[in-house]
Amino acid sequence: MQQDMLRRLDASLMTNLFRTHRIVVRKAKGVYVEDVDGNRYMDFMTVITTAYLGHNPDYLVEAIKSAAEDLIAGGSYVYYSEHLLNATEKLLSLFPGELNRVAFKPGGGEAIELALKLARKYTRRQEVLVTIGSYHGRTTGSLTFHGSRRKEFGPVPPGLAYVPYPYCYRCPVKAESCDECSDSILQLIESYLRFSGNRDYAAMIIEPIQGVGGIVYPPDHFFPKLAALLRENNSLLIFDEIQSGMGRTGTTWRFEALDVTPDIVVVAKGMTGGLPLAAVVTREEIAGVMEPGDEHSTYAAPPLVMAAAEATLSHFIENRERILRNVRETGDYALKLLEELKGRRKLIGDVRGKGLMIGIELVKEGKPAREETAQLCFDKALRRGLLLATSGWYGNVVRFAPPLIVSREEIERAVSIIDESLGEIEGS
Ligand SMILES: Cc1ncc(COP(=O)(O)O)c(C=O)c1O
């Protein structure tokens, strides 16, 4: 049945837009999804981290059903709903007190664009610093940051300057150590801020961990130094926590572990358990520059989606300690098993992560093993019942990002599937 459905999808949908797992999913629960032929898979990409507390938890299904009985159409730009009020207060309760204003958008790319508008209008400056290899979406505005994809779709909005990202495993400034790599990049950023262009930087936008870029972690001390540089220059710090937020690395937001409070934080994945919603959180003073008509999205924060956000955020807040403990414990365990695997499997060049945001970088004879990474994620592991996503500047990093409720046994099973699959690829 599945093959026939795939053939019909290929004949009608733009299936060439993105490389997906070639399965048609019928239902999902917890860590598991099931396709229309009845095959079961462990979901270790969590629909790019959206089903972050597992698929279809009962509290979420109930909340959506009950909200649907009362009110479906609506949005925060038309009139308000009780679910919008409750979800907003719950979301803001997860932020430090000064980050006390939020606006909702239907998707991450659009929220990034709103963050840029806020920064530009507030500072009355235009230019923005972005890091090479970052990913902030594929709308024409957010696409600007995705260096390699601009050529065919440009012109993209001007006013961006690119600086390297501290990717220690492949340091772009060829430093000897990770600290040296990050310090050299900070020096470069300082020169940009002080001496380049019109010295007109409204903001710098950065992912605390590059997600699509390959689960790249700069050293923690990079961020407070970066924040100080931007402050000295009166430029804002925008954190894109769309992928790293909502507990994925063992703290609610990654910035909590980095000793910085960004001026603007963009969040999305996880907030609703899978329905489309993104949020831009900032200080009252920054939010205050916007006026009616500066922003609009028909589908921002409809009642059904906000009911899902309310239920998911409530569940997270009530169970936060337990959820974050599980993230840290299972994450440490996964890292230990994957480090051991790295000793055995020559294709694994690097394993890195915090909590359940882990990257496994595959290399062959010192070069990025792009083909082998695709083979692992889209074929070998898939056939053994494990869903993994690819990522990376070179497409050679496996994203290991299960739902935050994953168990040690499921981690063991996933690592052993990766082991067997790599064995098959390596021919041993
Ligand atoms: C860090 C980051 N920013 C922005 C986006 C774009 O979000 P969306 O796909 O909802 O536009 C993504 C999506 O993967 C992301 O990971």
Any guess at the CATH architecture of the largest domain?
Answer: 3-Layer(aba) Sandwich
Q: Please tell me the total number of domains.
A: 2
End-to-end separation: 34 Å
Shape: globular
Give me the secondary-structure topology.
Layout: H1 2-12, E1 25-29, E2 32-35, E3 40-43, H2 46-49, H3 58-70, H4 82-92, E4 101-105, H5 108-123, E5 127-131, H6 140-143, E6 160-163, H7 178-195, E7 201-206, H8 222-232, E8 236-240, E9 264-267, E10 278-282, H9 284-287, H10 303-318, H11 320-344, E11 348-354, E12 357-364, E13 367-368, H12 370-383, E14 386-387, E15 389-391, E16 397-400, H13 408-426
Parallel strand pairs: 3-14, 5-6, 5-7, 7-8, 8-9
Antiparallel strand pairs: 1-2, 2-3, 4-10, 9-10, 11-12, 12-13, 12-16, 15-16
Helix pairs in contact: 3-10, 4-10, 7-8, 11-13, 12-13
The structure holds pyridoxal-5'-phosphate.
Walk me through the structure.
The protein has 428 residues and is an alpha/beta fold. The chain folds into 2 domains: 2-57 and 320-426, Aspartate Aminotransferase, domain 1, CATH 3.90.1150.10; 60-318, Aspartate Aminotransferase, domain 2 (3-Layer(aba) Sandwich), CATH 3.40.640.10. It has 13 helices and 16 strands. The strands form 3 sheets. It has a 7-stranded mixed sheet, with helices on both faces. Helix 3 (58-70) packs antiparallel against helix 10 (303-318) and helix 11 packs parallel to helix 13. The two termini are 34 Å apart. Bound molecules: pyridoxal-5'-phosphate. Residues 48, 107-109, 112, 135-137, 207, 211-212, 240, 242-243, 268 line the site of pyridoxal-5'-phosphate.
